[in-house]
Amino acid sequence: MLLELHNIFKWVTQGGKRIFLLSDINLQVEEGEFISIMGPSGSGKSTLLNVIGMLDGFQEGEYNFLGESVHAMKEKNRSKLYKEYIGFVFQAYHLIDELTVYENIETPLLYKNIKSSERKALVADMLDRFNIVGKKDLFPSQLSGGQQQLVGVARALIAKPKLILADEPTGNLNSKQSEEIMQLFKELNQEGVTIIQATHSETNAAYGSRVLHLLDGRRDHK
Protein backbone atom coordinates (compact mmCIF):
# COMPACT_ATOMS: atom_id res chain seq x y z
CA MET A 1 0.00 0.00 0.00
CA LEU A 2 1.46 3.36 -1.00
CA LEU A 3 -0.86 5.58 1.01
CA GLU A 4 -4.05 5.58 3.07
CA LEU A 5 -6.28 8.42 4.19
CA HIS A 6 -8.71 7.65 7.02
CA ASN A 7 -11.60 10.00 7.87
CA ILE A 8 -9.80 13.17 6.80
CA PHE A 9 -11.51 16.45 7.70
CA LYS A 10 -10.11 19.85 6.81
CA TRP A 11 -11.90 23.10 7.50
CA VAL A 12 -11.46 26.84 7.78
CA THR A 13 -13.35 28.95 10.28
CA GLN A 14 -15.17 32.01 8.95
CA GLY A 15 -17.38 34.15 11.14
CA GLY A 16 -17.28 31.50 13.87
CA LYS A 17 -18.53 28.84 11.46
CA ARG A 18 -16.64 25.87 10.10
CA ILE A 19 -16.45 25.65 6.35
CA PHE A 20 -15.40 22.14 5.34
CA LEU A 21 -12.87 21.87 2.52
CA LEU A 22 -12.61 18.10 2.94
CA SER A 23 -15.17 16.03 4.77
CA ASP A 24 -14.63 12.45 5.89
CA ILE A 25 -12.31 11.43 3.05
CA ASN A 26 -11.20 7.80 2.93
CA LEU A 27 -8.82 6.67 0.23
CA GLN A 28 -6.39 3.82 -0.32
CA VAL A 29 -3.84 3.94 -3.11
CA GLU A 30 -1.75 0.97 -4.19
CA GLU A 31 1.62 1.42 -5.84
CA GLY A 32 1.31 1.63 -9.62
CA GLU A 33 -2.25 3.01 -9.72
CA PHE A 34 -3.32 5.91 -11.93
CA ILE A 35 -6.16 7.76 -10.21
CA SER A 36 -8.18 10.69 -11.54
CA ILE A 37 -9.96 13.02 -9.12
CA MET A 38 -12.89 14.80 -10.73
CA GLY A 39 -15.33 17.39 -9.52
CA PRO A 40 -16.45 20.96 -10.16
CA SER A 41 -14.34 23.97 -9.12
CA GLY A 42 -14.35 24.30 -5.36
CA SER A 43 -15.06 20.61 -4.80
CA GLY A 44 -11.76 20.11 -2.95
CA LYS A 45 -9.64 18.49 -5.69
CA SER A 46 -6.58 20.72 -5.19
CA THR A 47 -6.95 20.62 -1.41
CA LEU A 48 -6.97 16.82 -1.48
CA LEU A 49 -3.86 16.75 -3.70
CA ASN A 50 -2.10 19.18 -1.36
CA VAL A 51 -2.98 17.02 1.65
CA ILE A 52 -1.69 13.90 -0.13
CA GLY A 53 1.42 15.85 -1.15
CA MET A 54 1.96 16.99 2.45
CA LEU A 55 1.82 20.67 1.46
CA ASP A 56 -1.38 21.12 3.47
CA GLY A 57 -2.29 19.82 6.90
CA PHE A 58 -5.74 18.77 8.12
CA GLN A 59 -7.63 18.92 11.41
CA GLU A 60 -8.89 15.37 11.85
CA GLY A 61 -8.08 11.94 10.53
CA GLU A 62 -5.06 9.81 9.77
CA TYR A 63 -2.70 9.74 6.83
CA ASN A 64 -0.23 6.89 6.33
CA PHE A 65 2.37 7.02 3.57
CA LEU A 66 4.53 3.92 2.98
CA GLY A 67 3.56 2.78 6.46
CA GLU A 68 4.57 6.06 8.15
CA SER A 69 2.06 8.18 10.06
CA VAL A 70 2.20 11.53 8.30
CA HIS A 71 -0.32 13.11 10.69
CA ALA A 72 1.96 12.43 13.66
CA MET A 73 5.19 13.63 12.03
CA LYS A 74 7.23 16.73 12.64
CA GLU A 75 7.22 19.22 9.77
CA LYS A 76 10.90 18.55 9.02
CA ASN A 77 10.34 14.80 8.59
CA ARG A 78 7.26 15.39 6.48
CA SER A 79 9.13 17.66 4.16
CA LYS A 80 11.93 15.10 3.85
CA LEU A 81 9.39 12.40 3.03
CA TYR A 82 7.71 14.31 0.23
CA LYS A 83 10.96 15.51 -1.31
CA GLU A 84 12.08 11.91 -1.38
CA TYR A 85 8.97 10.30 -2.84
CA ILE A 86 6.61 12.86 -4.39
CA GLY A 87 6.78 14.91 -7.57
CA PHE A 88 4.33 17.74 -8.35
CA VAL A 89 3.06 18.95 -11.71
CA PHE A 90 0.93 22.11 -11.60
CA GLN A 91 -1.43 23.76 -14.07
CA ALA A 92 0.55 27.00 -13.95
CA TYR A 93 3.86 25.16 -14.49
CA HIS A 94 5.51 26.88 -11.46
CA LEU A 95 8.85 27.07 -13.19
CA ILE A 96 11.39 29.52 -11.79
CA ASP A 97 11.55 32.41 -14.27
CA GLU A 98 15.17 33.36 -13.51
CA LEU A 99 16.47 29.83 -14.12
CA THR A 100 17.12 28.16 -17.45
CA VAL A 101 15.34 24.97 -18.47
CA TYR A 102 18.43 23.03 -17.39
CA GLU A 103 18.52 24.69 -13.95
CA ASN A 104 14.77 24.29 -13.41
CA ILE A 105 15.01 20.55 -14.04
CA GLU A 106 18.06 20.25 -11.80
CA THR A 107 16.45 22.03 -8.82
CA PRO A 108 15.00 18.96 -6.99
CA LEU A 109 18.42 17.28 -7.09
CA LEU A 110 20.00 20.15 -5.17
CA TYR A 111 18.02 19.08 -2.09
CA LYS A 112 19.40 15.59 -2.34
CA ASN A 113 23.18 15.88 -1.93
CA ILE A 114 23.76 14.38 -5.37
CA LYS A 115 27.24 14.92 -6.84
CA SER A 116 27.52 17.45 -9.65
CA SER A 117 28.60 14.84 -12.24
CA GLU A 118 25.62 12.63 -11.40
CA ARG A 119 23.25 15.63 -11.54
CA LYS A 120 24.57 16.46 -15.02
CA ALA A 121 23.92 12.91 -16.20
CA LEU A 122 20.38 12.84 -14.75
CA VAL A 123 19.45 16.19 -16.30
CA ALA A 124 20.93 15.12 -19.65
CA ASP A 125 18.71 11.99 -19.52
CA MET A 126 15.60 14.07 -18.89
CA LEU A 127 16.39 16.61 -21.64
CA ASP A 128 16.87 13.70 -23.98
CA ARG A 129 13.74 11.84 -22.94
CA PHE A 130 11.58 14.93 -23.46
CA ASN A 131 13.33 16.06 -26.65
CA ILE A 132 14.23 19.42 -25.15
CA VAL A 133 18.04 19.27 -25.38
CA GLY A 134 17.97 22.26 -27.74
CA LYS A 135 16.00 24.28 -25.17
CA LYS A 136 18.23 23.70 -22.16
CA ASP A 137 19.67 27.25 -22.04
CA LEU A 138 16.36 29.02 -22.64
CA PHE A 139 14.28 30.64 -19.91
CA PRO A 140 10.63 29.64 -19.30
CA SER A 141 9.34 32.85 -20.93
CA GLN A 142 10.96 31.74 -24.20
CA LEU A 143 9.00 28.47 -24.32
CA SER A 144 5.47 27.61 -25.42
CA GLY A 145 2.99 26.41 -22.79
CA GLY A 146 3.41 22.80 -23.90
CA GLN A 147 7.19 23.03 -23.62
CA GLN A 148 6.94 24.65 -20.19
CA GLN A 149 4.73 21.80 -19.01
CA LEU A 150 7.22 19.23 -20.38
CA VAL A 151 9.90 20.95 -18.31
CA GLY A 152 7.52 20.81 -15.31
CA VAL A 153 7.04 17.06 -15.79
CA ALA A 154 10.78 16.51 -16.27
CA ARG A 155 11.46 18.41 -13.05
CA ALA A 156 8.85 16.37 -11.17
CA LEU A 157 10.38 13.13 -12.42
CA ILE A 158 14.07 13.76 -12.04
CA ALA A 159 14.28 12.70 -8.42
CA LYS A 160 12.57 9.39 -9.36
CA PRO A 161 9.48 9.87 -7.19
CA LYS A 162 7.15 7.00 -6.35
CA LEU A 163 4.13 9.28 -6.70
CA ILE A 164 3.33 12.09 -9.15
CA LEU A 165 0.58 14.51 -8.15
CA ALA A 166 -0.75 16.49 -11.11
CA ASP A 167 -3.16 19.39 -10.57
CA GLU A 168 -5.02 20.16 -13.82
CA PRO A 169 -1.76 19.41 -15.65
CA THR A 170 -3.17 20.30 -19.07
CA GLY A 171 -5.38 23.19 -17.95
CA ASN A 172 -3.37 25.76 -19.94
CA LEU A 173 -2.60 23.61 -22.98
CA ASN A 174 -4.22 23.08 -26.36
CA SER A 175 -5.66 19.66 -27.19
CA LYS A 176 -2.59 18.37 -29.03
CA GLN A 177 -0.28 19.38 -26.16
CA SER A 178 -2.75 17.93 -23.64
CA GLU A 179 -2.72 14.61 -25.39
CA GLU A 180 1.08 14.59 -25.44
CA ILE A 181 1.27 15.21 -21.68
CA MET A 182 -1.39 12.61 -20.92
CA GLN A 183 0.34 10.00 -23.10
CA LEU A 184 3.49 10.76 -21.19
CA PHE A 185 1.73 10.15 -17.85
CA LYS A 186 0.38 6.89 -19.22
CA GLU A 187 3.90 5.77 -20.16
CA LEU A 188 5.28 6.77 -16.77
CA ASN A 189 2.48 4.86 -15.09
CA GLN A 190 3.29 1.77 -17.16
CA GLU A 191 6.87 2.12 -15.89
CA GLY A 192 5.54 1.86 -12.34
CA VAL A 193 5.08 5.48 -11.22
CA THR A 194 1.86 6.02 -9.25
CA ILE A 195 -0.09 9.03 -10.54
CA ILE A 196 -2.94 10.98 -8.97
CA GLN A 197 -4.33 13.77 -11.12
CA ALA A 198 -7.04 16.34 -10.46
CA THR A 199 -8.87 17.19 -13.65
CA HIS A 200 -12.03 18.78 -15.09
CA SER A 201 -11.63 16.83 -18.27
CA GLU A 202 -13.46 13.56 -18.90
CA THR A 203 -10.88 12.80 -21.62
CA ASN A 204 -7.97 13.18 -19.21
CA ALA A 205 -9.78 11.33 -16.42
CA ALA A 206 -10.22 8.35 -18.74
CA TYR A 207 -6.44 7.80 -18.70
CA GLY A 208 -6.73 6.80 -15.05
CA SER A 209 -7.47 3.26 -13.93
CA ARG A 210 -10.09 4.61 -11.53
CA VAL A 211 -11.94 7.86 -11.06
CA LEU A 212 -12.80 9.46 -7.75
CA HIS A 213 -15.60 12.04 -7.74
CA LEU A 214 -15.60 14.90 -5.24
CA LEU A 215 -18.46 17.22 -4.44
CA ASP A 216 -18.25 19.90 -1.73
CA GLY A 217 -15.24 18.22 -0.17
CA ARG A 218 -16.88 14.80 0.06
CA ARG A 219 -16.50 11.69 -2.05
CA ASP A 220 -19.44 11.46 -4.36
CA HIS A 221 -20.04 7.72 -4.85
CA LYS A 222 -21.61 7.73 -8.26
Automatic annotation (TrEMBL):
<keyword id="KW-0067">ATP-binding</keyword>
<dbReference type="GO" id="GO:0022857">
    <property type="term" value="F:transmembrane transporter activity"/>
</dbReference>
<protein>
    <submittedName>
        <fullName>ABC transporter ATP-binding protein</fullName>
    </submittedName>
</protein>
<dbReference type="GO" id="GO:0098796">
    <property type="term" value="C:membrane protein complex"/>
</dbReference>
<feature type="domain" description="ABC transporter">
    <location>
        <begin position="3"/>
        <end position="222"/>
    </location>
</feature>
<dbReference type="InterPro" id="IPR017871">
    <property type="entry name" value="ABC_transporter-like_CS"/>
</dbReference>
<dbReference type="InterPro" id="IPR015854">
    <property type="entry name" value="ABC_transpr_LolD-like"/>
</dbReference>
<dbReference type="InterPro" id="IPR027417">
    <property type="entry name" value="P-loop_NTPase"/>
</dbReference>
<comment type="similarity">
    <text>Belongs to the ABC transporter superfamily. Macrolide exporter (TC 3.A.1.122) family.</text>
</comment>
<dbReference type="InterPro" id="IPR003439">
    <property type="entry name" value="ABC_transporter-like_ATP-bd"/>
</dbReference>
<dbReference type="GO" id="GO:0005886">
    <property type="term" value="C:plasma membrane"/>
</dbReference>
<keyword id="KW-0547">Nucleotide-binding</keyword>
<dbReference type="GO" id="GO:0016887">
    <property type="term" value="F:ATP hydrolysis activity"/>
</dbReference>
<dbReference type="InterPro" id="IPR003593">
    <property type="entry name" value="AAA+_ATPase"/>
</dbReference>
<dbReference type="InterPro" id="IPR017911">
    <property type="entry name" value="MacB-like_ATP-bd"/>
</dbReference>
<dbReference type="GO" id="GO:0005524">
    <property type="term" value="F:ATP binding"/>
</dbReference>
<dbReference type="Pfam" id="PF00005">
    <property type="entry name" value="ABC_tran"/>
</dbReference>
<keyword id="KW-0813">Transport</keyword>
